[in-house]
Amino acid sequence: MNNAELVIPRQIGTEGDTAVILDYATLHDLQAIHELELALFPEEPWSIDMFLEEIQHETRTYCVLREGDSIIGYAGVMVVADTADVQTIAVIPEREGRGYGRLLLNTLHQLAQSRGAERILLEVRADNPRAQQLYLRNGYTQIHLRRGYYEDGQDALIMMHEFTPAEPDSTQDSYETNPYAAEYLHRGESHVY
Ligand SMILES: CC(C)(COP(=O)(O)OP(=O)(O)OC[C@H]1O[C@@H](n2cnc3c(N)ncnc32)[C@H](O)[C@@H]1OP(=O)(O)O)[C@@H](O)C(=O)NCCC(=O)NCCS
pLDDT value at position 152? Predict the structure, then answer.
């Protein structure tokens, strides 16, 4: 793969006049990430101690999207031997549907591949079609259903994506090829590069 794909931090878009930066998460981000976690995963939020452990763990890598002083998205991946797992991925509701979820997911793919992963797995709630769409459109297929996996009894879909050696880097899409970017540029609002 091309190492240029893994330039972090880098600007990946704008919201109004504010740059949106893809960056690695640091310990300073823990509080903000945890506040988002409580809002975005109200069913089973991770504790701040879990995030602390995750961010410091050598097999994990966490990224954030910064807009000014705020975090608008975060995602993490675990890589052990040739298999990666999406630990979490989230974008704040005010910034959904702009391509940030896809960008974070593809960043996890690149990080995983750079650490030798040949495939990536995740679990997603059966009642979360939006996230499932994100995964289906980015090469995942359902390989298993774990009934009653979540604390509230909801089932989990286990999904997997096999990497190909030269997977195209869609996070580097220009506005000409990224439908979100084209749409938002056209509307003069925001865009993801
Ligand atoms: C799932 C989530 C990360 C998607 O983030 P996002 O920034 O909205 O994602 P994107 O804008 O890249 O869109 C990804 C896909 O979502 C779907 N989508 C986008 N906007 C949508 C909308 N307004 N309504 C329904 N689906 C939409 C599309 O299928 C899109 O696929 P495409 O890129 O092929 O068009 C985000 O909704 C989220 O954080 N949800 C709450 C936390 C969560 O459920 N995380 C996943 C846990 S497994």
Answer: 93
Q: Which domain holds residue 113?
A: 10-185
What local confidence, expressed as pLDDT, does residue 167 receive?
Answer: 56
Kindly state if the Cβ of 144 falls inside 6 Å of ligand 1: no
Q: Would you name the residues annotated as active-site residues?
A: 123, 135
Q: Can you read off the two tokens belonging to residue 96?
A: 């959904």
Q: Supply the pTM of this predicted model.
A: 0.86
Which CATH number belongs to the domain containing residue 179 in this structure? 3.40.630.30
Distance, in Å, from the CA atom of 129 to the CA atom of 136, rounded to the nearest integer, reads 10
Residue 71 lies in a domain: yes
CA of 58 to the centre of ligand 1 (A): 28
Determine the distance separating the centroid of ligand 1 and the alpha carbon of 82, expressed in angstroms: 27
CA distance 156 to 141: 13
